[in-house]
Amino acid sequence: MRSLTYAALVAAAFFWGGSAIAGKLLLDSLLPASVTFSRFAVAAVALLAVCLAMRLRLRVTLREHGQFAILGVVGVTLCYYFYFEGLARSTAINAALAEATIPLVTLGLSVLARRERSNRWQTAGFVVSYLGVVLIITRMDWRVVAESRYNVGDLLLIASTLCFGLYNFLLRWFAPRATSMVQTYYIFAYGSLALLPWLLLSDGAVRDLGRLPGLPADLLFAAVFMCVGSSVLAYVFFNHGIEQIGASKASSFINLVPVITIVAAIALLRETPSAAQIVGGLVVLVGVYLANRAKQTDPPIEAVPAAEPVPSVEPVPPAAEAAIAAPADARESR
Question: 182, 208, 260, 300: least CB-packed within 10 angstroms?
Answer without folding.
Answer: 300
